[in-house]
């Protein structure tokens, strides 16, 4: 009898802990938006700092007024450049909410790529299937088409560069940047076969091509889903730093263990944060955002706060 009571007590404690963790993740942590601050020495010696605001996986729903206001307040960081790595809407009527949240960044230069959730509305999924492979493998429901053309037009009106399988060049605070990106690798939309040509054409048309005495450009790769094939290709093209999202940092993590999944072939140790990514011959910095949102059908985060990331690009030592 004593053992039975002890077992029942342990089960009750475990059940209470599970309910408490679920309540925390659903009601509290997914709304505890925070800023992660990073410093990366990639600029030429003597360069002025360039502050980059990295936004990803907002998954905005029209009723999420707290998230909209929090993103608007990020303008107080006064970034020099904004990088958006996709999955902005989380509902088929979210465009107006996204535009409201990002309007304070009008006139701040930036760049963006799309994720598949910029094209298709969310659909219910069994979360346990994430343990058997990336979610794109398990998509059966017919998705709702979203107005990605409106989103693209709005981003471009802010002054942001479209890097979906494109390469562009820009100068910010005296530093020269080469930017190249891909469409969403999670849906196999990335055109890595076009990447070398895009980069070569961009480098042949840069606005500073006639000024041979200026600082060497810094190369930035931008993608939504950090699949290893994309990261390796970016490093081969000379990326100094890569920005990505998609993983949600695992969304649910185990303290002391970390993310359980990345929803792609990226190792779990790289699910979020600043890392070094090495291919066979070279390496670059890799910045993966845990993102700001979740699917409306899986509104929980645990041991993985939603985040925006402020990356200060600073000068290398001589």
Please explain how this structure is put together.
The chain has a 6-stranded mixed β-sheet with strand order 1-14-2-3-4-5. The chain has a 6-stranded mixed β-sheet with strand order 6-7-8-9-13-12, covered by helices on one side. The chain has 6 helices and 14 strands. Helix 6 links the parallel strand 8 and strand 9 (241-244). The protein has 318 residues and is of the alpha/beta class. The protein is 23% helix and 23% strand. The protein has helices at 2-28, 65-73, 95-102, 148-158, 195-204, 228-236, and strands at residues 34-43, 50-55, 81-84, 110-112, 160-162, 167-172, 175-181, 218-222, 241-244, 253-254, 258-259, 273-278, 283-288, 307-315.
Layout of secondary structure:
Elements: H1 2-28, E1 34-43, E2 50-55, H2 65-73, E3 81-84, H3 95-102, E4 110-112, H4 148-158, E5 160-162, E6 167-172, E7 175-181, H5 195-204, E8 218-222, H6 228-236, E9 241-244, E10 253-254, E11 258-259, E12 273-278, E13 283-288, E14 307-315
Parallel strand pairs: 1-14, 2-3, 3-4, 4-5, 7-8, 8-9, 9-13
Antiparallel strand pairs: 2-14, 6-7, 10-11, 12-13
Helix pairs in contact: 2-3
Return the string of H and E elements: HEEHEHEHEEEHEHEEEEEE
Give the CA-CA distance, first to last residue: 73 Å
Going across the major beta sheet, what is the strand order?
Answer: 1-14-2-3-4-5
Give the number of helices. Answer: 6
Strand content: 15-25%
Q: Largest sheet, described in full?
A: 6 strands, mixed
Runs with pLDDT <50, length 5+? 12-18
- Given the C-alpha coordinates, what overall shape results? globular
Q: Over the alpha carbons, how many angstroms does the gyration radius reach?
A: 21 Å
Give the overall average pLDDT: 90
- Structural class by SSE content: alpha/beta
Number of strands: 14
Helix amount: 10-25%
């Amino acid at each position: 009898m004593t053992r039975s009571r002890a077992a029942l007590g342990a089960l009750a404690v475990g059940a209470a802990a599970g309910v408490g963790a679920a309540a925390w993740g659903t009601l509290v942590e997914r709304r505890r938006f925070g800023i992660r601050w990073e410093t990366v020495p990639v600029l030429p010696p003597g360069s002025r700092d360039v502050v980059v605001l990295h936004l990803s996986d907002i998954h905005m729903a029209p009723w999420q007024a707290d998230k909209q206001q929090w993103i608007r307040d990020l303008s107080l960081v006064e970034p020099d450049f904004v990088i958006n790595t996709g999955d902005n809407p989380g509902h088929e009527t979210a465009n107006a909410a996204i535009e409201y949240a990002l309007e304070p960044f009008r006139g701040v230069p930036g760049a963006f790529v799309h994720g598949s959730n910029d094209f298709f509305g969310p659909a219910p999924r069994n979360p346990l299937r994430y343990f058997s492979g990336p979610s794109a493998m398990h998509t059966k429901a017919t998705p709702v088409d979203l107005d990605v053309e409106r989103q693209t037009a709005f981003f471009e009106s802010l002054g942001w560069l479209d890097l979906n399988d494109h390469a562009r060049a820009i100068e910010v605070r005296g530093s020269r940047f080469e930017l190249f990106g891909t469409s969403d690798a999670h849906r196999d939309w990335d055109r890595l076969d076009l990447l070398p040509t895009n980069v070569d054409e961009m480098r042949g048309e840069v606005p500073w091509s006639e000024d041979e005495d200026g600082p060497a450009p810094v190369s930035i790769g931008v993608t939504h889903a950090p699949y290893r094939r994309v990261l390796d290709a970016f490093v081969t093209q000379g990326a100094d730093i890569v920005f990505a999202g998609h993983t949600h940092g695992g969304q649910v993590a185990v303290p002391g263990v970390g993310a359980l999944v990345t929803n792609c072939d990226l190792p779990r140790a790289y699910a979020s944060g600043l890392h070094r990514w090495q291919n066979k011959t070279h390496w670059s910095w890799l910045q993966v955002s845990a993102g700001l949102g979740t699917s409306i059908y899986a509104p929980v985060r645990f041991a993985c706060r939603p985040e925006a990331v402020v990356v200060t690009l600073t000068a290398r030592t001589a």
